[in-house]
Batch of 4 targets.
Target 1
Amino acid sequence: MSIELERRALSDKPENNKRNLELSAYFTIPKLETAHRQIALISGMKTAYNKKNYLLANHFASKILTNSGGNGKIAEQVCAILLMIKSCFTQYIRKLTGYIGSKNQSFR
């Protein structure tokens, strides 16, 4: 619990982003009851998404879906975030490759 309290005490300054994400990830490691673990994973996923660390957010989202069995309101919210993450990845790849989006072009 002290990990989460320390994470919340950090300010939102950009220089604290790395530490904030580290603490979010550490908080998901302890063996907690499933419900409490879900809360830690959701918190970590939202923190990572808000800090634009989509790879970590995707990792947390996958663990949430695994724990919940893909059922319920939480799973729906996680799937929505996964779709946003996929969109961000797609935009990033298009930007890197110079892909414009014409129907005749494809990734090679």
Target 2
Amino acid sequence: MKNRIDIKDLFGGLQNQMVAQLNTNREFILHPGSKGDSLENVWIEWLKKYLPNRYCVDKAIIIDSKGDLSNQIDLVIYDQQYQLKVFMPFLRLSLILEVTLMVIVLLNIRESKLKVLES
């Protein structure tokens, strides 16, 4: 038994799992809106699983400091430290003071574009 893990192979295996899940959803979910939601949810769940707990991942509509609304953002990564929660009877509003990363378009990502980084 060797006492070494090939990091490239480890991340390659994780990538293969994700690609398989994305391809299955892409192939067998026929409704365009449901297909898009399912692909976004795969990314959200994957990032929640592997990012440090300090970061949150979700879909969001961003409200800026002037009160202006963005369109729906498919994937937002934000630092939990900069989040204020406001609860109202029929509304859960999270005030995020800093967005770490926004991803607007996920549907154009194809398996051929996912590569394991060479060291």
Target 3
Amino acid sequence: MCSDLLVALELCGKNAVSEFRKKMGPSQPSIAKIENPQTLRAIYGKNHSKNAVHGSNSKESATRELQFFFHYNSLLKSPAMFKYSSLCLIKPHILKEKKIGEILNCILAQGFEISSL
């Protein structure tokens, strides 16, 4: 469940699901800070529920999640649905802290393309 507004993105790139999962880091920010302090959750996460971002955990999940947010009946635009896509949800606390630009810069610097927003 979501406590407020969030931003949904379709990220495209080779091995998008696995590569974005690496960039996110462990779902628990306290663990992410120890295991991989350069990940999004280590840098921007607060706790398990306010862990900055969500990403698909498999190609099948990506297809299902992208269809949920971007299907043709949605008010949102249709996704490109590239073979190498992953969903990224930027969580409400990031928006409230006005750090969405920092997150987007990190995603783009990793080499992903954003095909749907």
Target 4
Amino acid sequence: MTISRSRLVDTDVTRWYHCVSRCVRRSMLLSEDGSPGRKDWIDNRLKEHDRIFAISVGGFSIMDNYLHFLLRINNRAQPRPNRANRANRANRANRGQGNCTLIR
């Protein structure tokens, strides 16, 4: 059974969250040759999402097959987003890949 985010995340209790994501099937997140390309890409995407969404990245760690994020929910002086605003943010985050459209 799923739980809605409004019930799962309570900003009155804490605004900081530790999130972990792991690769599956023994895949490696970073290349074995040690090239910084993927790590730089992840760093840039985090900065981009920091600007798009109401979160701040307090810190992160990128390991061979794990990502750890320390995220803070920002309650900026933003009105509650409407459906069009959410679709716009999703498009910006995905750079048009998958094109989120507003369904009425």
